[in-house]
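Hey team,

Filing this mostly as a record. A colleague (T.K.) asked me to run one chain through the structure pipeline before their review meeting, and I want the input and output archived in the tracker in case anyone asks later how it was produced. No errors, nothing strange. Just documentation.

Input sequence:
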Amino acid sequence: MEVVAFQTAKIDMIRFNNILCPIDLSVASERSLRYSIALAKSYEAKLYVCHCIEPGGLEYWQTREEALDALTKKIDDAVMSHLTLAGPQSINYEALIIEGDPDTAIAQAAANLHIDLIVMCSRRRPVAAALLGSTAEAICRTAPCPVLVTHPNEREWVGKTTGEIDLNRILVAHDFSLDSELAFSYATLLAQEYQAELHLIHVMPYSSKDALKSMPPGEADAFHEAAERLQQSVPPEVFLWSKVYQVVRSGQPYREILMYAQDKEIDLICMGVHGAGFAMHALFGSNSDRVLRQSPCPVLIARPLKPNVGRNRKWRVNYENPVGS
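Output structure:
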């Protein structure tokens, strides 16, 4: 189903006021830093660039002050390199050095700082290590806010030299849950901001790929009902600024989502996931885990914003003036 409409004035929805970008100071994390800087500029948000030192990681330094100075300089240099590539720009950012297990320390820092969005990179793990998960997957389970995960060798929508955002097609995996409604809200925010196409997919859990005409009557009715619910899930005002595409498929949800994203050259997949869902499928992986690991583009895992839930020891360097101003 395709609905095409004309754009009009924006409406006020979700905003990104505080963005957290954890980096490990490797080449791989440069991608997530580039995305976080672009989004921070676009939304005039405060950017926190964070590096986490794992327990025992200080033994390579003579003093904590030496570690603080050296690591802060590396963060500053990384941020400035992206600002230089994009030309004269200004951005309000703060460098953070935290100590602890990254899987929990980053989520705690996000809660302490009232972060609205975490942007981070996940490396493609070999099949043999897939059951171990990754830091990005672990943070997606516990983060107090949405997490945007990038991967190496994927479709990009932030220019490497310009830093400009070119987001054209957003896919929402919609199962009619409150979590997927939240994912749809974030997708709508981004689609409105960048005049992107909005694609919604609902996957029926059928074991076969039979055509609709060969489905038993009850299953055919369920298919039509799902298509109608998917159509009704889009508020009328969304059609005013985005082209909207809606599709119902049957099969393995993660496979259908990945196939659609590949076929339609999707730039961003948005999924809503409850933390308990990850825990229930921790051993064999969930649909969201598999999409995260195999997606041809960045993935936004939408999670409800949660209040400050604890303290984590951290070293902070405050910048009174925006860098590059």
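Quick notes for T.K.: The CA atoms of residues 205 and 252 lie 7 Å apart. The mean pLDDT is 78.
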